[in-house]
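Input chain follows. Return structure tokens only.
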Amino acid sequence: MKSSRLLSILLLLQTRGRMTAAELAAELEVSPRTVYRDVESLHAAGVPLYGDAGHSGGYRLLAGYRTRLTGLNAGEAEALFLSGAPGPAAELGLGPALAAAQLKLRAALPPELREQADRMRTRFHLDAPGWYAADAEVPYLPQVADAVWHGRVLHVRYRRWKEPTDVDRRLEPYGLVLKAGRWYAVAGPGPRTYRVDQILRLAVGDERFEVPAGFDLADHWRRYQEDFHARLHRGEAVVRLSPAAAARLTGPAARALEATGSAEPDGWTRATLPTESPDQAHSFFLSLGAEAEVLAPRELRDRLGATARALAAAYQQ
């Protein structure tokens, strides 16, 4: 445990420069007193690490000092190779860089860890898109990624779902997110979210921008998803479900069944389930067939009844 922490201190100072004991303690989730002891251990081992006093002080390594990649355990080596996603990296134009980095990492590992890392790479494969979704073409992804990295403004022709469908937008791309096989750009002003595969034309402007202070891409995406699901499920339906229909529910519907479901004498379950729109609710409950009965709202029940009667008439001919 201590050896791993000492290596972490070295790598943090090597990559971030000067850090205070309090900053190191927060990063490593230990007390400042533990950091002081670890620094003394590094001094005793001959590591050129120095401490500066004062308001802007902190620990730093001697300029030019670099540690070799040592101290990895089996789990860490396996995780590093498992984290490499060749598909997304290639889409970003980083495929050769990722391959070169993995080659260098593999060469730096001792033989026993190299063997375990190779086994991990041959046993696990990431395939992000869903079964029924074709891979979307994202010809402008490398340019968007480059603009994210260098803080360049983009001028795009973008296709959205509502009228007018094709619009011109000036984007300040703060970051990229890969979700279920699709790339999304989070961009200001706003920020707002754009599907990269819906960019029809793109021009990189001379103007530069700064990401707003305090903006956190992961936190923004989490809140964006919460808001998306809240807006998506705006309606409710009171239903009776057979055991077979209840077993088919997934996601929000399954969670709503667990929260609101009550057993009835005939073995069915009464519950209140979220719905997105009248058309979506009609299609969804129709797919459950005779294993589900919608009790409310009345408009949805009447529409399903009319569809059922039309189907019955068609198959009686």
